[in-house]
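Lab notebook page, bench 4
Experiment: in silico fold of construct C2
Operator: M.H.
Input chain length: 373 residues
Purpose: comparison with the prior construct
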Amino acid sequence: MKYRLICVALGALVVASCSDTEEVTRPTPALLENGLSASMGHVYAMTNAAAGNAVLVYSRASNGMLTFVSALPTGGLGSGQFEDSSNGLLLASRQKDSSPTNFTGADQFLIATNAASNSISVFRLRDNDGPLLVDVVASNGEHPVSVTVSGGILYVLNNGDAAFAPPPNCAAGPGVPNITGFKLSRRGELTPIPNSTRALSGDRNSGCAQVSFTPRGDQLVVTERTASGPGRIDTYRLLRDGTLSAPVVNTPTGIGPFGFNFTMRGELLTTENFGGLTAPGQGHAAPYFIRRNGTLEAAGPTVGNGGTDTCWLVLSSGDKYAYVTNFFSSSISSYIVESDGSFTLLEALADETIGVGAADEATSQNGQYLYAR
């Protein structure tokens, strides 16, 4: 299945940007974070601007083209720098995430991370009047970069970074990477969950990239792309009081687990960047089964695509295809997701972006469009 790819330059961004319904989050020098609205006909993009973070609202025509509508301040500060992470801007209901594979169609909230002011902003989505900012709370850590929601519980990944440090560093500042939880009310207010903060399994330079609940909502997954050399994939069991168990630390089948997604059956599909720019042409993707005890079992081998710095992954409707973006080779690769959960490379070069840096991506709710920053 080939998706129609619509590329639209956003602001002064030097990388081509494509957007439709849902959320995306991969920074580049000018427009640092990007998210796509799950509400048909809208796109949301996060600026991550140091002078004041904002969500940019775009309307989407039936052919996928975008028209700028407005900029909504988040009430916090962006870092003004490159964020090496995924899901810093998220569409969700209280039940679960929608981003970046946007097939639930039940979005209530748009959630933004404010990396420089160490806070999280929640917008409530309204049919006629647009998003309404309802809460801004401290993230209980330094430099929040990724969020996830399930069953009225929100967890945020704070990478501890006071200022961006080139890979493999995750934390250049005095902070220590952690994840911490909040209760999300029906109105969108956030309340910290006592004793929910957990330090990550790796060291301060672990390359922490994404936090997400599993589709069942009973486990939390975090990728640390450079911890212990090849990286780590941490799983945590969600307890009844909203806190987490101790982590189960899993070694990836390849090197450098970064962004990830889940099939409807619950398989974990990750990208692997194998060192990014230091390993040209070594972008990969790897599939896993998640066991109830938090251990991962490879559903197949890690599969290369010939791209450089593979970092983000979305699925087509029905989970038949996976699409990954390769940042430094400015390309998109496609995979077939086999019935046994394994990967087969479909097209090493499914498409190219204009300029340097193919970043975050998302699918439209109707499954007809793939958008890549």
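Observations: The longest strand covers residues 343-352. Residues 5-39 have pLDDT under 50 and may be disordered.
Next step: discuss at group meeting.
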